[in-house]
Amino acid sequence: MTGHDSAGHNELRPAQLALNDETHLARHAHHSSFGRESEMDDDLNGIARRAAAGLLGGLDDVVARERRSSITPDDWARHEASLAEILTALGLDLDSPGTRDTPRRLMRALFDATEGYDGDPKLVTVFPTECHGGTSCELSQVVEGPIPFSALCEHHALPFIGRAFVGYIAHENIIGISKLTRLVRIATRRFGVQERMTHQIADALGELTEPHGVAVYMEAHHLCTQIRGVREVQPITRTIAFRGRYETDPSLRMEFYDLAGLQRGIRE
């Protein structure tokens, strides 16, 4: 979803949950989680439905999704009026050609910036693995990045903006490369904290592909520390999550850092 200032009230879209033709999940007699036997539910239709909307790994906030889908034109107008009152109280003159539509634009911008709650039916395309045996299957990484992202801090509702690197070691399934970018955007275009989002991306990719391991690295500048409080400008917040083989094999972690260009002296 992208912001369109000319969009009408009735163009708000409900959460997209229908399984579409682009979603393919292979059936396996035995499921594994990061290469180990698990108690995962065998109802692949249920997994597919959530995966189709990008709502795996704890990303399905049912309450938020239902609230967004139930916003009416009257609600929208009421929210705009509330924003107008707040902006006026803070000093903004809304009686000029450039500012009369600011409350409407702000409401639309906030709605678009939190579209991750709605999921993405184009997220998931899972294919059978390209590795057909041998020890290399537990060593071959796929690393994608940098993936730019923006999110809203749940503490101050201010943006934090950065980039992510996502890696995994395929087991039974691989995922379309562009879908890793979609996954990051689903996880970040909402209110939250960077630490939680990092782990949610790792868990969602693990639930979707059942790999030998997952690695997620995120770094971002947080506006809540730059324009308020300590007002620091340069610091970057970095978070990382490892699953499966990455947790037990230091060489795989080092290789992930190398492939992502994150080693000291190499990083941009």
Structure overview:
- Among the domains are: 66-113, Orthogonal Bundle (GTP Cyclohydrolase I, Chain A, domain 1), CATH 1.10.286; 127-259, 2-Layer Sandwich (GTP Cyclohydrolase I, domain 2), CATH 3.30.1130.
- It is of the alpha+beta class and 268 residues long.
- It has a five-stranded mixed sheet with strand order 7-4-5-8-9.
- Strand 4 and strand 5 (159-169) form a beta hairpin.
- The two termini are 30 Å apart.
- The protein is built from nine helices and nine strands.
- Helix 3 (73-89) packs across helix 4 (102-113).
- Residues 1-33 and 35-53 have low confidence and may be disordered.
- Helices cover 34% and strands 20% of the residues.
Contiguous helical run count = 9
Query: What's the overall average pLDDT, rounded?
Result: 78
**How far is the first residue's CA from the last residue's CA?**
30 Å
State the low-pLDDT regions, or none: 1-33, 35-53
Helix content: 25-40%
Rounded radius of gyration (Å)? 21 Å
Tally of strands: 9
CATH fold category name of the domain at 127-259: GTP Cyclohydrolase I, domain 2
